[in-house]
Amino acid sequence: MKVFVTGASGYIGGSVAAALRAAGHEVAGLVRSPDKAERLRALGITPVVGNLNDEARLAREARAADAVVHAADADHRASVEAMLTALAGSGKAFVHTSGSSIVGDGAWGEAGDRIYADETPFQPGPGRAARVAVNERVRAAAADGVRACVIAPSLIYGEGRGLHRESIQLPRLVAVAKKYGVARHVGRGENIWSNIHLDDLVDLYLRVLARGAAGAAYYAENGENPMREVCAAISRALGMGGRTEPMTREESIAEFGEGPATYTYGSNSRVRATRARRELDWSPGGPTLIETILG
Description:
By secondary structure, this protein is an alpha/beta fold. Helices cover about 40% and strands about 20% of the residues. Strands 3-2-1-4-5-7-11 form a 7-stranded parallel beta sheet, sandwiched between helices.
């Protein structure tokens, strides 16, 4: 099978591309710079130099492939439209990467008790409404003859397999701890996030590519932790004795940016990957988030 992967030099896309190559598939990967193109080529991935605004190129690559994994910008609607239009009537798989911050509640460090299964309805916050609209556009492509699916990972951890070895959320918390000499969380840090090991997430991508249901959305998770617990583990790993401190709303926005502070570091995002387990025999078994932090 030939698979076109956007975000092929990134943490998720690069890891999925590497796994596809290891499984014997042919992979073409979108990459922005010639330097990264050569590094991808060394991994056995055919580089496609361009960006998400190159709609004609994206359409050509999508048509030339047997399947597409879109693991670049979850909010970039024009790129999604270009590829889905090119795939209309083909029956090919299109797997779009979203994220569980779509159910983030902006709780600013307070615990939340709402838990979302794959089909649980929700009203996204203003900062995630556009992303949810893209997800729905992808799912609607099932009616146009595309086996289009959405994967919404929770907080991802574990070493990447491609060019980008680190996740996004955890390294930023580690950087904050090093900057201040103490691990810091938004408010009381009681807000809870589901999480998933990268190896288990990559396995889910391969299963969705092979037999995901057209129009389906899949959360990816295998556990959850309050942010204060995550920060305490980071503190112990850095030799800070497990000590943590709260950040005010203003401090967290200044540190992370308004979107991440609101919908990631300060929110609850509690999801359950019931559909993947039920329909795809997905059985995640990687080490837990806290085990991974503590090494």
